[in-house]
């Protein structure tokens, strides 16, 4: 019976062929894997190019500076809270607000001034409001070189929206003025000022 053990030369040939076959298989697998990676990279290249290319509108929106519009004719010139620091148990806080009116004011106009006071935690808030009927101003088209100033005084007793005294801390305020006229269904806003912001300290003894 034929056996490779009885023929050493045939055993060596068989081993060599096995080694060559293993090398070929390994080389084939490596080439297939490399070819597949190349295809996947080629397929991903357009997507990466799309992702890396910034959108024109987005890029312009990021670099475009924010331009503030023209200030309204109705202005808040100053806000003076006193006394500062404010101690609720001792006295009330007085907010003195100076408002500049437009050169032309509608007949029967009403000036509405609101002040929003907020605590550092934003949990305590208080809204102060004042409305007053304005005297008649020159009609539109008539000359009026002087701007009219109105002083508005508001007081705060140191309580929040729940009527409790506020704790100590730095409180912020936002003041805004509106020029309104009385319509058939109620007041109508004609002009609105920009908000005037600031802060003051509250102490508790």
Describe this structure in words.
- Helices cover 26% and strands 35% of the residues.
- It folds into 2 domains: 4-63; 75-136 and 148-202, Immunoglobulin-like (Sandwich), CATH 2.60.40.3880.
- Residues 35-45 and 57-61 have low confidence and may be disordered.
- The chain is built from 2 helices and 8 strands.
- The chain starts with 7 loop residues before the first helix and ends with a strand.
- Strands 3, 4, 6, 7 and 8 form a 5-stranded antiparallel β-sheet that branches. Strands 1-2-5 form a 3-stranded antiparallel β-sheet, with no helix packed on it.
- It has helices spanning 8-52, 56-63; strands at 75-82, 93-100, 109-118, 125-133, 149-156, 169-183, 186-192, 196-202.
- A hairpin with a 6-residue loop joins strand 3 (109-118) and strand 4 (125-133).
- It has 205 residues and is an alpha+beta fold.
CATH topology of the largest domain: Immunoglobulin-like
Number of helices: 2
**What's the number of domains?**
2
Helical amount: 25-40%
Rg from alpha-carbon coordinates: 40 Å
Largest sheet: 5 strands, antiparallel
Q: What fraction of the residues are assigned to beta strands by DSSP?
A: 35-45%
Shape: flat
What is the count of β-strands? 8
Average pLDDT level: 78
* Straight-line N-to-C gap: 115 Å
Order of helices and strands: HHEEEEEEEE
Assign the CATH architecture of the largest domain: Sandwich
Uncertain runs are 35-45, 57-61
Q: What structural class do helix, strand and pairing data support? A: alpha+beta
Q: Could you name the CATH class of the largest domain?
A: Mainly Beta
